[in-house]
Amino acid sequence: MIDNLALFFLVSLVATATPGPSIVYVTTQGVAHGLRPAAAAGSGVLAADALYILLSITGLTAILVASHEVFTLIKWAGVAYLVYLGLRLLAAGFSAQPGPAAAPQAGSSPRRSFLGGFALRAANPKALLYFGSLVPQFIDPSRPIAAQLVLLAAIHLATAGCVLGAYGVFAGRLHGSSINARVRRAFHIATGGFFIGAGISLSLMRR
Description:
By secondary structure, this protein is an all-alpha fold. Helices cover 79% and strands 0% of the residues. Helix 2 runs antiparallel to helix 6 (110-122), helix 2 (21-33) runs parallel beside helix 8 (145-174) and helix 3 (35-58) crosses helix 7.
């Protein structure tokens, strides 16, 4: 059991620390709007993970993964949201004017950042596959399954929380710093391109 938990921790650490849409979103919120929106965005991601874990405990994730229609719906919702985020960032980058860093834009409230992080993660079918297919591999059928799922959930959420928190703090410290306006503009354009590329990649995903 201990070996399984240690291996699951390593898998969670690699999965959450590898830069992907969630980390890029948290970082973008931190650089553009500050620490609070970054923390809220990370909390939204964790809330979506907690939802998938709850579904996993009840056995619903296996049903969702098996349903072609539901999987396709989640996938295309994720594609649409990733492209939407990318276009917004590209627009912000190309419309940015040279000069001092601008004040936080409208729509950068922690509530919106939380909802954005939640939607981004919840609409990612890779998260559905992760919790519906990978997590059960670490379950020992000879032991109480619900208790094991709760323990694995705690390990994943704690690991992901630390990783997202580290990215958020780092990005939040860059907000309001003397970063050249040209660098900020390039950052928005690069992250916008990343989200659009991630959306295209997701559209090609097959189970």
